[in-house]
Write a structure and sequence with these properties.
With 409 residues, this protein is of the alpha+beta class. It contains 15 helices and 17 strands. The strands form four sheets. Strands 10, 11, 12, 13, 14, 15, 16 and 17 form an eight-stranded antiparallel β-sheet that branches. The longest helix is centred in the last third of the chain and has 21 residues. The protein is globular and about 70 Å long. The two termini are 24 Å apart.
């Protein structure tokens, strides 16, 4: 009916996105299609390490179902208690597990999609190898609902780690964080599961604004890294190896200090600091957060350039850096004291930050998507050839432009 009468459709999952991708325009003509009641677990195949779910299943429920059969689904977001799998797929969600397991694009084996003309595309295969033509499911991963409505997903599962070693490391500079990452990557290999960069001001913002959080190290440092290593061997020596690595770097002066979680409770307290970043910033003021990524080798240059161009530009603002250093995704966060300062300056600030990222062959949308808020900026970050091909795909699948119009393109 919508295709026949050219009625716009806006698919909506957990509504936790930050780019306006699930928000209709102001015309009042759109139908919002909520997937929340499509929340069934269709099948768990432990032998195949896969789970098939409806698009409206909440991410935390997938975690629980995987744990029930002693498996792991590794996508981990601060909004895991409310975001839905369909939205995770549609935005190609990232999070803290990308370093070891990849983004959502790497975790999807199959999709079921309702196309704009109402036809159902059934690609719900749990295959890891299928070289029979175009991989059509990849068109819809990261498309933000502009090509169809995802209704079912086959997800990869993994063995559950038997050991976790989690540490918070104090560092004198972001370059020291990159040196630590290189050493951990070379000496720990696939054991390195997460490597999160947190600026000193960002950590202080969490401690000041989130009750129950704490300062893990007595001395304040300019930079911190929250790292986690995992192992599924019964006789793991991971903790000892981590202690030796960090002790050696402290003695050499490459690392200022470090604390390693002794138990599950301490591990959860360390991770709570990282997961509380967004809430802490909102409590500080009006937040402008960027979703930039650059090659890992350019992270230090990117942060320094942003700091030089922004730190003294607006009195009263706070500048924070936080991100997933292992995949080059650095969030530049500017906290304004009031809405007036935000409204007056956000566009210029974003142009500066995104311009720095693009100048280093980076991206303006590493994991959050384009939605409405970055649609104009996409023109500066994609070539005319890329944009032309994207439009051709959109026009071929959705000639009436009814699927989430005004988003991405």
């Amino acid at each position: 009916m919508c295709a026949e009468h050219l009625i716009p459709i806006v698919p909506q999952g957990g509504n936790t996105g930050v780019c306006g991708g699930a928000v209709p325009d102001n015309s009042g003509r759109s139908i919002i299609v909520s997937l929340g009641r499509m929340n069934g677990i269709r099948e768990i195949d432990a032998a195949n390490n896969s789970i098939t779910v409806d698009a409206g299943v909440v991410l935390a429920d997938v975690h629980r179902e995987a744990q029930r059969v002693n498996r792991l689904f590794p996508l981990d977001l601060g909004s895991s208690g409310s975001c839905q799998i369909g939205g995770n797929v549609s935005t190609n969600a990232g999070g803290i597990g990308v370093l070891k397991y990849g983004s959502m694009r790497s975790l999807v084996l199959g999709l079921e999609v309702v196309l704009p003309d109402g036809e159902v595309l059934d690609c719900l295969k749990g295959l890891r190898k299928d070289n029979s033509g175009y991989d059509l499911k990849q068109l819809f991963i990261g498309a933000e609902g502009t090509l169809g409505i995802i209704t079912g997903v086959v997800l990869k599962l993994f063995s559950r780690p038997t050991h976790h070693t989690t540490a918070l490391v104090g560092l004198p500079s972001c370059d020291a964080a990159l040196d630590l990452f290189e050493l951990c990557s070379s000496s720990m290999g696939s054991h390195l599961a997460a490597f999160e960069l947190i600026s000193g001001m960002q950590l202080e913002a969490v401690i000041e604004n989130i009750p129950g959080t704490f300062r893990p190290l007595e001395v304040k440092y300019d930079w911190y890294v929250l790292l986690e290593l995992t192992d599924d061997a019964l006789d793991s020596e991971l903790l000892e190896r981590t202690e030796n690595l960090l002790s050696g770097m402290i003695e050499a002066g490459d690392v200022s200090d470090a604390v390693i979680a002794k138990n599950l409770n301490e591990r959860e307290r360390l991770w709570r600091i990282r997961h509380s970043v967004s809430e802490a910033n909102v409590r500080q003021g009006h937040v402008l957060s960027h979703d930039t990524s650059v090659p890992i080798s350019r992270i230090g240059d990117f942060i320094r350039t942003c700091d030089e161009k922004l730190s003294h530009r607006l009195p009263g603002t706070r500048l924070h850096f936080v991100g997933h250093i292992g995949d080059g995704n650095v969030h530049v966060v500017v906290v304004f004291p009031d809405s007036e300062a935000f409204d007056r300056n956000w566009a210029q600030i974003s142009e500066i930050v995104n311009g720095i990222a693009l100048g280093m062959h980076g991206s303006i949308a590493a994991e959050h998507g384009i939605g409405q808020s970055l649609r104009q900026s996409l023109r500066q970050s994609k070539s005319e050839t890329e944009l032309r091909l994207m439009r051709l795909v959109k026009e071929s699948l959705d000639p009436g432009n009814i699927m989430n119009p005004g988003k991405v393109l």
